[in-house]
Write a structure and sequence with these properties.
By secondary structure, the protein is an alpha+beta fold. Among the domains are: 588-697, no CATH class; 711-844, Sandwich (Immunoglobulin-like), CATH 2.60.40. The strands form five sheets. A four-stranded mixed β-sheet has the order 1-2-6-5. The chain has a four-stranded antiparallel β-sheet with strand order 7-8-14-12, with no helix packed on it. Helix 14 runs parallel beside helix 16 and helix 23 (518-532) crosses helix 24.
Length: 847
């Protein structure tokens, strides 16, 4: 009876405390809710006005973009001038409206209203409903910009058993989040935490590795990142010889690949290591600001799930190219943001001048490494220091701090650029052309290439609300004169997160959203940590605070459990890692292309490679490109004329082209018709292997170590109906597999000196296509080749073909082959003479 009475009393006290709200809590909630509501309403009307009255110049932008984009890709041009101005305006005005809202709703005018129970519970119901509606629209509606027929992530999550397990265990985990883990289990929890961390980071590292044929995703994404790395390793210099879409990171990586040698596997290992370091820095940052180990574990697991595991295990088959390892984001756009997050957290908790200068220097370097993410790192810290200066509450002092901070930031940035420019000068003896640094970014910006419009209702609404509340916490704290480090961190992460989110703005589909939401997860962990460490423990069990704790805990628990997919991860690793360790190569077309390159080039040679894996082959063959970018992406997008002009005027480099680019099925690939025309007009087919062809320009200046430079011409040998021809043919010695019942073609060869020929191979090329081979070698199914003496009197050969014909050729001799209607087709003959075990190659072009 006593126990039952105690339980009833405890329940009554719980509900009494749940609805017993202090005056300060009511005022704080009123101020925060209405300040955020003011931002939402203001932005709604501002964006509505922009939509109604801002001039829509989409057609003009479309026309301008079509001038720089290949016509085949005009359908991918999607100008979004109104959406862009709406986003920019919203980002600029949001902090200002929040400050205005805080000032208005903390004034005496609203004192009586703010402490009303009716208003308090009305606000609570309003925001609960708002968040519920946004959750519904965010996950119920499939992403219109995503792959057709692919279900959304939330649908995939709900269909898994672990979703139900997470819901079942959620109350227990929430209990430990609120009350903490008993001290006797602290060591056990730490072991679990660091074991999980180690396994997770190792899995990320291994899942990100690949060799030439096991890259997961679209090869043009890999090409775009690795091409510039290869060119720099071969001695070229960015901003002098060529430019790059993703920044100057190849020069940062140069010493690493100088030590370990650049190949695809080593490249993937370095990228995997940087990706793993990025996540490690995020974890260490969380450890600095979150004392609750369980919250840290859940937040980090959620980040790993959304930004990595979710993309890897669903909702699509990774083998069809829908998933992409995408090194352009992980690690290129992630390593410096992760480093800045960790560094700034350290600075906010323990401000030091040297660390302040170091962060500015690191953020300046990040701009050079990758402009897209680097400029966010630089501006976020710049804005944060200005925000921190608001604490002085003195315009004169603030102005001094503003000028000083701006001067230091710009000075360090200029010094960093100067140091890099000096490095480029000492490397190349030329100063960098900084106009090239953003040339590709500008092209994308001007053309609106690959842009996708944002849906009105999607998960970005919830993420924006999280950042909105983070900015509110930071600004409210500084306006009240507080020096709360966690509030400052919340402000910094919010500004940083909004900046990172611009990546999603231009190309708005779910997989991009998952890449950039990690700052919002950090903020959720901060909000939860703040509530758990309230001075008055009773405040935690007020209805608003408890609701927030329950909601954030639910998000973290449900999301964290999704990372527990060992079967899928182990299956993927077990099928990939042995192949990578053994460097198993399954793509025969790629292997043939590499073999043809190695047969015809030396390391450092300049060649043009037309293939969907062109940059990969540059790496493996250690050759360089005559172009300033990888062909696979540029030729089909923009800058095409410059590359066509280079091909037209080429006299120095060979062109290698894969069969799947040269033609699709039995017809030429429509994307490369212009290239085909140039090759037919100005080039000749010189070599081939498998599905690959090597073209030489007609005006090519042959560089050869051999002193023998032969030439050849051909014509019909004799008319089969003439008496003289018949008598001549009858006097020929018998030759194995050489038809004499057809017309003959005689090919005259001029040699600078006498040589002893061991074998002859003749390849027939019609309209740049290989059509067959004849040979004196004993190869089945190949027609033999006859040799005429200098008086055209006798075919010299044996009845049985030999490996070595040992024919002494004087300065002029001829070979004879049967005509298979070749004269009408006007083919080119490629002739290979073997002498002293060395090949002499020559061509007999059609006259």
């Amino acid at each position: 009876m006593f126990n039952k009475l105690n339980i009833i009393i405890s329940i009554k006290l719980f509900f009494h405390g749940l609805f017993k709200i202090t005056k300060k809590s009511k005022q704080d909630f009123f101020k925060s809710s209405w300040s955020i509501f003011l931002v939402i309403i203001s932005l709604f009307f501002i964006n509505l006005l922009i939509y109604l009255f801002y001039p829509n110049n989409s057609e003009a932008l479309q026309i301008a973009a079509e001038k720089i984009i290949d016509p085949l890709h005009h359908f991918r041009i999607s100008p979004e001038p109104i959406e862009n101005i709406q986003a920019l305006t919203s980002l600029i005005l949001t902090p200002l409206i929040i400050i205005f809202g805080i000032k208005i709703f903390s004034s005496k005018l609203f004192t009586r209203v703010s402490i009303s129970n009716y208003i308090y519970f009305f606000n609570l119901a309003l925001y609960t409903s708002l968040i519920g509606i946004l959750f519904y629209f965010s996950f119920k509606i499939d992403d219109p910009n995503f792959i057709e027929g692919v279900p959304g992530y939330f649908k995939i999550m709900k269909s898994e058993m672990r979703f139900l397990v997470a819901i079942a265990i959620y109350p227990l985990i929430t209990y430990f989040i609120i009350n903490g883990i008993p001290k006797k289990y602290h060591r056990f929890v730490k072991i679990i935490l660091y074991s999980f961390l180690s396994i997770t980071l190792l899995s990320i590292f291994l899942l990100s590795t690949f060799n030439r044929d096991s890259y997961i995703g679209a090869y043009d994404h890999l090409n775009a990142v690795i091409f510039s790395v290869s060119e720099v390793q071969q001695g070229k210099t960015l901003l002098v010889d060529f430019t790059n879409q993703y920044g100057l990171y190849p020069h940062f990586l140069y010493p690493i690949f100088k030590l370990i040698n650049l190949n695809i596997v080593n490249f993937s290992l370095v990228m995997s290591a940087l990706t793993t370091i990025s996540y490690s820095l995020i974890f260490l940052g969380l450890r600095k600001i979150i004392n609750n180990n369980l919250v840290t574990l859940l937040a980090f697991s959620t980040i790993i799930f959304f930004s990595f595991i979710a993309l890897f295990v669903g909702p699509f088959d990774i083998n069809v190219g829908a998933y992409d390892i995408y090194p352009a984001y992980k690690p290129i756009r992630m390593i410096f943001p992760a480093l800045i997050l960790y560094s700034v957290f350290t600075y906010i908790l323990s401000p030091k001048r040297n660390l302040y200068l170091l962060i500015i220097f690191i953020s300046s370097l990040s701009i050079l490494w990758n402009f897209d993410s680097g400029v966010i790192c630089f501006l976020s810290f710049y804005i944060y220091i200005l925000y921190e200066s608001l604490l002085v509450n003195n315009l004169k002092e603030f102005t001094k701090k503003f000028i000083k901070h701006t001067f230091i930031s710009l000075s360090v940035l200029i010094l960093t650029i100067f140091l890099f420019s000096s490095f480029i000068y000492f490397r190349s003896n030329s100063f960098p052309d900084w106009t090239l640094f953003l040339s590709i970014v500008n092209n994308f910006g001007k053309s609106n290439f690959l842009s996708l419009p944002m849906s009105l209702f999607k998960a970005w609404n919830l993420i924006f609300l999280v950042y909105l509340y983070g900015i509110y916490i930071g600004l409210n704290s500084v306006l009240l004169g507080k020096k709360d480090a966690i509030d400052k961190i919340a402000f910094f992460v919010s500004i940083f997160g909004l900046g990172i989110s611009t990546y999603y703005l231009n190309r708005s589909h779910d997989s991009n959203l998952l890449q950039i939401l990690y700052p919002s997860i950090i903020l959720l962990a901060i909000f939860l940590s703040k509530l758990l460490h309230k001075n008055n423990r009773a405040d935690l069990f007020q209805i608003k605070n408890l609701s927030i704790v329950m909601m954030i805990s639910f998000i973290l628990v449900i999301s964290s459990f999704q990372i527990l997919q060992p079967n899928k991860i182990i299956h993927e690793l077990s099928s990939r890692i042995p192949n990578i360790i053994n460097n198993k190569l399954t793509n025969q077309l790629a292997s043939n292309g590499l073999e043809l390159l190695k047969l015809n080039t030396r390391p450092g040679d300049q060649v043009a490679i037309f293939s969907d894996i062109d940059a990969v082959l540059y790496v493996e063959s250690k050759t360089t490109s005559p172009f300033t970018r990888e062909i696979s992406s540029v030729i089909s997008r923009f800058g095409k004329k410059k590359y066509m002009d280079s091909l037209n005027n080429n006299k120095s480099y060979n062109v290698f082209i894969s069969d799947n680019v040269f033609r699709t099925g039995k017809t030429p690939d429509i994307r490369h018709v212009e290239i085909m025309k140039i090759l037919h007009k100005y080039y000749y087919l010189d070599d081939w292997f498998g599905g690959w062809r090597m073209f030489k320009p007609n005006a090519y200046k042959e560089v050869t170590q051999s002193k023998i430079k032969p030439s050849a011409t051909y014509a019909e040998f004799c008319k089969k109906t003439s008496l003289g021809c018949s008598k001549l043919i009858e006097s020929f010695s018998s030759i194995e597999n050489f038809p004499t019942d057809t017309k003959l073609i005689k090919i005259d060869i001029d040699l600078p000196e006498e040589i002893t020929i061991q074998s002859i191979m003749l390849h027939i090329i019609i309209d740049s296509y290989y059509q067959g081979t004849l040979s004196t070698l004993p190869i089945d199914h190949l027609t033999n080749i006859g040799i005429l003496d200098s008086k055209n009197q006798q075919l010299i050969n044996t009845f049985k073909r030999l490996d070595d014909i040992d024919y002494r050729a004087y300065k002029r001799f001829s070979i004879v082959i049967p005509d298979r209607n070749y004269l009408n087709a006007c083919p080119t003959f490629k002739i290979e003479l073997t002498s002293n075990n060395k090949n002499i190659t020559l061509r007999a072009p059609c006259k």
